[in-house]
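Listing 4. Sequential folding, example run.
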Amino acid sequence: MNDQDELIPVGKIIDTHGIRGNLKVFSYSGNIDSLQHCGSVLLKGKNGLLQEFSISGVVAHAGGFILSLDSFNEINQVLPLVGSELCLKRSQLPETTEDEYYWRDLMGLSVFTDVGVELGRIVDIFETGSSDIYVVRSDDREYLIPAIASIISLVDIPGNKMVITPLDGLLDL
């Protein structure tokens, strides 16, 4: 599998919606644009099998999405899909701009302070109203690092490294 075929998890089907075969999706990123423009999605079932489906519609709903797949028009057809993970191929995602990264690319980066102290690795990322938060964990500590330009000094994806300039007190929490 080349880099363009790499699967990127973008959400999970958490329930059905109505009786017409629509699905409730919990989005990992909150970004609906990729799904609206990609045309198809790969569903990874609980058994690990991948199936590709054409998308007939996707709309924002209650912090997630409502997904409609071609050829599914009633609830009993989609019940087996509940619990499946939605994946896109990297080639289906829009190109990132400078200083913009996919969460997938940041996961596992080693995080250092600007004076060379290693804090740990990024193990999780979550959204807040104003910025993403990187969860950085070492063997004995966990840090919550806001993803803001005044703190993030360098992101080196090929080098598997992030450098931060912590604000006073940030690492004491």
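-- end of first protein; second protein begins --
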Amino acid sequence: MIICSNCKHSNMAGAMFCSECGAQLMGKDALTTQNITTEQFEQVIDHTPKGDGMYQPFDDGDAWGSLHLLDTGQVLPLSTRNEFTMGRISEGQPIMPDIDLSPYQAYAAGVSRLHAVIKRNGGRIIFIDLGSANGTYINGKRLVPNVEQTLNHGDIVALGKLKIQILFKNI
């Protein structure tokens, strides 16, 4: 276990950021690079239902980034589209988010039906809170609704209490 020096939360061994407050757990000098092979990774699945209701394998070569759900460890890839709305599906709601977080306990975590937008704009990744009821936080700082905020690789975004690490390729 790694204890966060900022909030004293116990984090899993190997974590780079605190799952409670988003603070960096290890100094830059403590980070090391390791060679890994692609055989160590399972195939990533695109969580967008296709016409037949089945999930199709995801070709990560097309993705510009991914959302790493910290509570479950699941990875949701971001395809070649430049903009995605995020939220949860609710019965009778006429407008649905591009990324439905309902399967990941979004309702219990306080995620709004249309909570936020993540978009790629040239060389920048931008995140916008859409006036959500429980707020959006980047590395522990609450966003002002409807104001663009630039993201960096590895940032921790909290939609309500649902924590997501944003990972993206060099753009």
